Amino acid sequence: MASNGVSGLDMEKKSGGGGGVEDIYGEDSATEDQLVTPRTVSVASGYTLLRDPHHNKGLAFTEKERDAHYLRGLLPPAVLNQDLQEKRLMHNLRQYKVPLQRYMAMMDLQERNERLFYKLLIDNVEELLPVVYTPTVGEACQKYGSIFRRPQGLYISLKEKGKILEVLKNWPERSIQVIVVTDGERILGLGDLGCQGMGIPVGKLSLYTALGGLRPSACLPVTIDVGTNNEQLLKDEFYIGLKQRRATGQEYAELLHEFMCAVKQNYGERVLVQFEDFANHNAFELLAKYSKTHLVFNDDIQGTASVVLAGLIASLKLVGGSLAEHTFLFLGAGEAGTGIAELIALEISKQTKAPLEETRKKIWLVDSKGLIVHSRMESLQHFKKPWAHEHESIRALLDAVKSIKPTVLIGSSGVGKTFTKEVVEAMTSFNEKPLILALSNPTSQSECTAEEAYTWSKGRAIFASGSPFDPVEYNGKLFVPGQANNAYIFPGFGLGLIMSGAIRVHEDMLLAACEYTNQHI
Ligand SMILES: O=C([O-])CC(=O)C(=O)O
Ligand SMILES: [Mg+2]
């Protein structure tokens, strides 16, 4: 980092305050023989230093630093230490009543004084996670065109085909350890937001630093723009992406392949690529294809699965029985639904030594066409086929609940308000403590609210959701809902992969992460 550092400040390598970790494991060596970028980076000082978010400290520059870095006169005389800066900023943030204003204030801070941004995030995780992450990041993506100020990651569009390696070299950092990439086709439960999905990789990577301890400069947010099928965006004069319908098939595959090859060539084989918020069809295919040649994982399939399994195992302490003794019903048979289902089946199989085909039979999925049953086999997408069990056709979720009588109901469909009063009441009629997980994000897409789950179950439901809900008072008792979001696993999981120098992700690693998380719930 010599060419990029500010002499005396030594921020990049310091652990602690800035949230970075020292490179004691030598994980950067994977990148040692990469090609050198043709640019030179000058050492920032004076006015330029104040405009460099990686090194700017604002009023926290000490008298000594103001002398050493030519800052005299460029700042008002007061020196505010970082604690005071934090106090002032938290006070300011709390004045904003509109969540999106808080989001924009946080993004401004990240672009002005990165160190302070992470200090705020680390010290106030519970308060600020819903701002930089779900649910507010969802709204930010929807309005990204109008709130866009500065690029916070790399945009790789069809225009860059054949030049992706060069594009990677335009990014100012070389030692990249984690890339979070989306193509914007399924942003949370909000659908196709095209290029505006950039908010997701940016938000996810800020958690890699705040919760996982990775250096911000080692994190690269990427949005692949192959167009959008969102008519509203296509008509929007402020839309920031390619104004064309999505490329598919070979054209799509070729761009993604060029990207994956360029990443490995530029950053080495130990760079972690986290796939995020791709639509189902591409998500499964990309994961299957690149898990053989790259260090990749899909957060929506595998991250969500590990967190939910950890949560289920922890909740057995409340509801009793072993995992194998429960019956699971999912609403939603996409990435999260089938990912969680498979990891549950795998864990039961590990615990009971029963074959996977057997353990899958206690797990049922409902998609937009109804219960997934054997008679639908022909028309099912490949990732749904393992869940097509023998049963009569059922169309509605409520009927499926009444017929299957699950002990655990999991929503992962991206469609809000689908766990109706009747559904929750049915769950409560045959379970002492029904386990209800409304996982879809953001809050607007949640299958039901915490209040609904507790009220409709008369305080008997064990409830967790993907986006956070406040505690609920019911019948004079306070119920604190759980949060089952992949944010509880991916920063630690990714850090583990990087520290260990792994070059592939295996299922056992996911189960291990899940066991560890369970012990700490
Ligand atoms: O981002 C989140 O809050 C969880 C997630 O991966 C998704 O909903 O796609
Ligand atoms: Mg996601």
From TrEMBL:
Keyword Lipid metabolism: no
Keywords: Metal-binding, Oxidoreductase
Entry-linked InterPro entries: Aminoacid_DH-like_N_sf, Malic_enzyme_CS, Malic_N_dom, Malic_N_dom_sf, Malic_NAD-bd, Malic_OxRdtase, NAD(P)-bd_dom_sf
PROSITE patterns for this protein: MALIC_ENZYMES
GO terms, molecular function: malate dehydrogenase (decarboxylating) (NADP+) activity; metal ion binding; NAD binding
Coiled coil region boundaries: none
Cofactor(s) required for function per UniProt: Mn(2+); Mg(2+)
Pfam families: malic, Malic_M
Residue ranges, annotated region (Disordered): 1-32
Identification of the protein by name: Malic enzyme
